[in-house]
């Protein structure tokens, strides 16, 4: 149950929940939320966590996912989302926004913002979207230094540090496995291998690595779309759907705007909109009214 103006669950408890979920044998499903309202809906629909995608934070700013966003921009969006949900929030921290000392500073920012975990990747700066060609990865030793710096800066031992490797599409699957093992040895709590091709590659990764694994089920990318149940059977601990909600929303918005441009009215779109009544339910208007009717004495009407 969320609090009135912020989550009732503390950041520390959310981090414990994420740790426990990763150890539970049940896959943790983390849809991407492009704003706090979407995170509220994710919680209401019974998911185990929320994900904040760096690609989505970039896209919301009308920027490509090529490392243009800053630590403060990403942290603030993470803070806004984490404060409204009782679910643990995992955030994309790109390459740590710099070299090892920057990765350490990034970790402190994300902890202070109430996030439950983050992932840091082994791409060079500036990074690229994980499902684009033309990526480059740093030497594994450089990424190990990044990770060790982040781990050393962590103050809450339950904050989850996930290491992402983009080596699969550059150096091959075996090299990605070797990197994952090195990253686990460096203190990573979970491994995220970007752009695995199909279930057999997910299975091979699970057989080779003995810490929690995260799968990325992004649409229109290089990975086959595999159900949460099948990923759980393959031994994966978590799955993210990073851009799904943004893609759904932007498709609907574009179609709606095109109709208004063509017809001059939104009257034909009403059955494709969230009703005001449903929005008010999500925003919990009635509880605000009940909070202090001497101050908030509005009535809900259609």
From TrEMBL:
Pathway: Organic acid metabolism; propanoate degradation. Gene3D superfamilies: Phosphoenolpyruvate-binding domains. Coiled coil: none annotated. Its cofactor is Mg(2+). The keyword Membrane does not apply. Its EC number is 4.1.3.30. Keywords: Lyase, Magnesium, Metal-binding. One of its GO terms (biological process) is propionate catabolic process, 2-methylcitrate cycle. The keyword Lyase applies. This is Methylisocitrate lyase.
